[in-house]
């Protein structure tokens, strides 16, 4: 029973925030245009504060786990290579190829992994997850741009790519947090308090916005792509991640953080990126919607399994 309660406590807030956002739009209190503006504000203003504060407020003595970072980065790159070699053999259209590859490997790691880890492991979990975010997010961004440009038939401009990655608000927040750690900076309480409060607002607000932008009306035509892609993302990849973590003798916290890289739904940012880079925008949006909704169930079941088996 305790494992069930822990799983419920870890996942139910996500369902509540998503449903609240969805119903707010459906009943007409806000429209989709407002939600898109709010989403942009959350990404540019709130996420950097959360990234900064999670690192700034880490527990004393907590170190950067080089093994976890190395294995995580290598696993993502290996997965991309496997998908690059297999998906084009199964899907004929280039606009769909890039979208499906991106949708399978690129997860909503920031939005789901950090609060999930905090729900189970407390603040020590958020700091560790934030450190990994600073590495994984640039890999997601760079590889997604390269893949979409490749399948569009475009050219890759290295300087523009570097500039785009370095200007990412998540990276800027992580760099600021790392600088605060290295320089042993402490904010005055009159500043630290609002930064902390804004940081706490980020996840509920982002999930509320995500719920408010969910649409289910156009999935039928793409189900033959969506079903296998979402099954791979939410079932096969998490299982492979757990086997890898166990083989490497990761501890409970490291196992869970590594697991969340592959068990969380498709990144929300994959939709606008695909739409603006010659990909099948409708398929990308449907991948986000379907994987997000089903992940509430699959993550609950995974967390229940992990807790009941004593893995976390």
Tell me the layout of helices and strands.
Blueprint: H1 2-26, H2 32-56, H3 66-90, H4 94-105, H5 109-121, H6 123-152, H7 158-166, H8 169-183, H9 189-212, H10 223-247, H11 252-263, H12 270-276, H13 281-308
Helix pairs in contact: 1-5, 1-9, 1-13, 2-6, 2-8, 2-9, 3-4, 3-6, 4-6, 4-10, 4-13, 5-6, 5-11, 6-7, 6-8, 10-11, 10-13, 12-13
How would you state the average pLDDT, rounded?
83
**Whole-angstrom Rg:** 19 Å
| Helix and strand pattern | HHHHHHHHHHHHH
Catalogue the unreliable spans: none
Q: Approximately how much beta-strand content do the residues carry?
A: under 5%
Please give the alpha-carbon distance between the first and last residues: 15 Å
Number of beta-strand segments = 0
Just name the CATH architecture: Up-down Bundle
**CATH class, anyone?**
Mainly Alpha
Query: How many helices?
Result: 13
Major β-sheet annotation: none
Instruction: Give the overall form.
Output: globular
Number of domains: 1
Helix content: over 70%
Global structural class: mainly alpha
If you consult CATH, what is the topology? Na+/H+ antiporter like fold
């Amino acid at each position: 029973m305790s494992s069930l309660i822990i799983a419920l406590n870890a996942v139910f807030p996500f369902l509540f925030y998503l449903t609240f956002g969805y119903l707010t739009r459906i009943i007409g209190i806000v429209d989709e245009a407002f939600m898109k503006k709010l989403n942009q504000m959350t990404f540019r203003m709130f996420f950097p504060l959360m990234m900064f504060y999670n690192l700034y407020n880490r527990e004393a003595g907590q170190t950067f786990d080089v093994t976890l970072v190395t294995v995580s980065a290598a696993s993502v790159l290996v997965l991309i290579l496997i998908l690059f070699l297999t998906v084009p053999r199964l899907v004929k259209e280039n606009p769909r190829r890039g979208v499906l590859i991106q949708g399978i490997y690129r997860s909503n790691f920031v939005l789901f992994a950090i609060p999930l880890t905090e729900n189970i492991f407390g603040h020590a979990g958020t700091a560790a997850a934030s450190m990994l975010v600073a590495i994984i997010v640039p890999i997601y961004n760079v590889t997604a741009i390269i893949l979409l440009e490749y399948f569009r038939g475009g050219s890759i401009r290295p300087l523009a790519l570097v500039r785009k990655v370095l200007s990412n608000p998540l990276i800027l927040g992580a760099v600021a947090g790392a600088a605060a750690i290295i320089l042993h900076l402490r904010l005055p309480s009159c500043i630290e308090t609002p930064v902390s409060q804004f940081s706490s607002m980020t996840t509920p607000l982002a999930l509320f916005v995500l719920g408010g932008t969910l649409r289910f009306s156009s999935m039928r035509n793409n189900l033959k792509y969506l079903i296998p892609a979402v099954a791979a993302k939410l079932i096969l990849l998490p299982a492979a991640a757990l086997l890898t973590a166990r083989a490497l003798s990761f501890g409970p916290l490291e196992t869970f953080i590594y697991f969340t890289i592959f068990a969380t739904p498709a990144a929300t940012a994959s939709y606008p990126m695909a739409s603006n880079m010659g990909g099948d925008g409708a398929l990308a949006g449907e991948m986000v919607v379907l994987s997000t909704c089903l992940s509430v169930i699959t993550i609950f079941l995974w967390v229940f399994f992990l807790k009941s088996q004593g893995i976390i």
